[in-house]
Amino acid sequence: MRTPAPAAVLFDMDGTLVDTEVLWWETAREVAAGLGHRLTDADAPEVVGRAVADTAAHLIGVRRGDASALPSSADDRAAALARTAAELTDSFFRKVDAGAPLRPGAAALLASLEGAGVPFALVSASPRSVVDAVVAGSLAGVDFAFTLSADDTVRTKPHPDPYRTAAERFAADPAACVAVEDSPDGTASADAAGCAVLVVPSLLPVAPGRGRTFARSLEEVDLGVLSDCLRRP
Q1: CB neighbours of 136 closer than 8 A, spacing ≥ 6?
Q2: pTM score over 0.90
Q3: What's residue 20's pLDDT?
């Protein structure tokens, strides 16, 4: 018996639909260098797939080895964090606005869902300014039901809020929705919200887990694959 189609498909943006994770890494590396820190693979879990505020906090935090480099008061530390977050956002926006390629298979998958009448939305941990730039550029013409950014929920990924909010917007049970993700934090967010998850890893590996289906590329994914994700124990 054929598995019913998902009530909705919830797509991550960076590294999933659009090849922006490399741009984000370049941005973090440049900002880190300005703070006197050389970004390495050891920093990746705190940078890849993370919200701007999380990455900014990490870059400020890695300076703890040099006490003289840290602001002394709580207000000064908060200001430093805000400056670093703004620098990350502005630099990343400029890179994305210059053009970011779609991931292989993304355009065909989105078109097939639209043709089949399956609703889908964008659920991103990037700021609204970046989401809007990508939707107006690389994803122009894609008929998302709506887009969610890091600015649209109190907590962003890896918390469940973004995917729970998206399912609510569709008036759907999260368990009837499939989230498509590339990163550990995004996958954790969708898991915690109760969604089935299709993982297409990009820069960081994602561990196997209950309710997780894996594909090497979106080129391998169609509506049948997404529907089968709902049956995975």
Answers
A1: none
A2: no
A3: 83
